From TrEMBL:
UniProt entry tagged with the keyword Membrane: yes
All copies of domain Citrate transporter-like, residue ranges: 27-355
Family: Belongs to the CitM (TC 2.A.11) transporter family.
InterPro entries, A to Z: Arsenical_pump_ArsB, Cit_transptr-like_dom
Name listed for the protein in its UniProt record: Anion transporter
GO MF entry, a single one: arsenite transmembrane transporter activity
Chief localization: membrane
Record PANTHER family: TRANSPORTER ARSB-RELATED (PTHR43302:SF5)
One term under GO cellular component: plasma membrane
Length: 422
């Protein structure tokens, strides 16, 4: 009897092949974005999904949003502002351990203004410059940036794309996000700092940085223009989300104004991290193949259904490693609604679980891929799949416990108080 390749088997084989390519990139020398994009293409050419299904699977809101945010990152780097920011970070704090703490804190808080992906893109050059000036291995600071944007972006809808989906599709208010998730986020940032010191105690030297060459902003006009429009973007995010209009409209307006006014528009476009855009396109197509090929249904046999805070957080952390967190949330929102458990507290559990999932494997969040690729492009080190897990697992476990305890014990009470106040 001949062996029959069913659609389900083909989808599973493509998934295994793609993840092996990413896990062993140190051997294959193929970056994750290329592996994921190829995996998505394989889903099409093998007939797992049709071309039309592939096109419809791509979330243009996410793709356009990333392009607009990367436009600002590119302009700020081109103007020399990011290098100046690295200089100010070092000259202000001087001790590498203090620099590490404030990278963790600032990246976590700022991610809520322009998403974790935006900060991941714009701060990677800062980290490389700072590490070079301190003459210290950049990896501890790159990991700190990766963990910082993941932990910090939990507490606001504008912190990451998956929180945006929950805001727009599940109609969870800004106030609910901040009211319930702000305290555990700050607790996790502080605890994670001490874990990082233990993990990298042999790599982060306790020295004072004395001699640093002064750095000035190369193009002040471009820097001020970019910063002004970026601030306007954040304001538009808040206004549009309040009146329930897609916030992508805000970043579209401001980024298009930047390209219209700035003379360096061609250089800005050329410096955009297009490899990450390809990663996301490939990821959406790849995920659609997993879904239609039955691989997701197969995984459901091993993961509890999302019916309460614990099962939602556990399953979203686990499935985000296969689907990445944005597609996972896109799939989970209608499923949670269908199960009839779409309470505010469960939506916040989904936001928390799917976000901290980035602190498990490099595929858990696109921001990890962005940092790794942005560093490698500029001559720095990239993340190793298995090394990432070694450093991230202690962080993830602490993050999970803090968020779960806080959401499950006091979340409902806080929601009731916020509702009454509102």
């Amino acid at each position: 009897m001949p062996f029959i390749f069913t659609v389900e088997l083909v989808a599973l084989l493509i998934a295994i092949f793609t993840y092996l390519m990413i896990a062993f990139r140190s051997i294959t020398k193929v970056p994750p974005w290329a592996s994921m994009f190829f995996g998505g293409v394989l889903m099409i050419v093998t007939g797992v999904i049709s071309v039309n299904q592939a096109y419809s699977s791509i979330n243009l809101d996410v793709i356009i949003f990333l392009i607009t945010i990367f436009t600002f990152s590119s302009a700020l780097e081109l103007s020399g502002f990011l290098r100046y920011l690295a200089y100010k970070l070092i000259i202000t704090y001087r001790h590498p351990k203090k620099v590490l703490f404030f990278i963790l804190l600032y990246s976590g808080l700022l991610s809520n203004l322009v998403t974790n992906d935006g900060i991941a893109s714009s701060w990677t050059p800062v980290i490389l410059e700072a590490s070079k000036a301190m003459k210290i291995d950049e990896l501890p600071f790159l990991y700190t940036l990766a963990f910082g944007v993941t932990i910090g972006s939990v507490m606001m809808p504008t912190g990451n794309p998956q929180n945006l989906l929950i805001l727009l599709e599940a109609h969870v208010s800004y106030l609910a996000f901040i009211g319930v998730l702000a305290i555990p986020t700050f607790v996790n940032l502080v605890l994670s700092y001490f874990i990082l010191l233990l993990l990298f105690k042999d790599k982060v030297k306790d020295a004072v940085i004395d001699e640093i060459r002064p750095v000035e902003i190369k193009d002040r006009k471009l820097a001020y223009l970019s910063l002004s429009l970026l601030i306007m973007t954040v304001v538009l995010f808040l206004i549009l989300s309040t009146i329930r209009i897609d916030i992508v409209l805000g970043s579209l307006i401001t980024s298009s104004l930047l390209l219209l006014v700035a003379r360096e528009r061609r250089n800005i476009i050329q410096r955009i991290d297009w490899s990450t855009i390809l990663f996301f396109i490939g990821l959406f197509i790849f995920t659609e193949g997993l879904f239609r090929g039955g691989v997701i249904d197969l995984l459901y046999h091993f993961i509890p259904p999302p019916t309460n805070v614990l099962t939602i957080m556990v399953s979203s952390v686990a499935l985000s490693q296969v689907l990445s967190n944005v597609p996972l949330v896109a799939i989970y929102i209608p499923e949670i609604m269908q199960l009839g458990v779409g309470t505010t507290i469960n939506w916040l559990a989904l936001a928390a679980g799917s976000t901290i999932a980035g602190n498990f494997t490099i595929l858990g969040a696109a921001s990890n891929v962005i940092i790794s690729e942005a560093s490698e492009i500029r001559g720095g080190k990239s993340f190793n799949f298995f090394e990432f897990i070694k450093y991230s697992l202690p962080i993830l476990l602490v993050n999970f416990v803090v968020l779960y305890v806080f959401i499950s014990l006091v979340g409902t009470t806080l929601i009731q108080l916020l509702t009454a106040f509102h």
